What does this fold into?
Amino acid sequence: MSPDLTPPGSARSAAEVNEQIRALWLRAGGSLSAHDREEYEMLVVEWAAAIRSRVVEAA
It folds into this structure.
């Protein structure tokens, strides 16, 4: 895991996490290594949690 990753449930917005996901794909050139894939999966989980928290807040 990259040291700059914030664990799921962080205070980062979905937009911030999405930007990091996009940067990962650009950096990887569209083909993720095993390490990149692990980072990607963690970011997707964090992004989904951020989306869910926005939905709960809106309700």
User: Anything to note?
Assistant: The chain has a mean pLDDT of 84. The first helix runs from residue 14 to 28. The chain is about 70% helix and 0% strand.
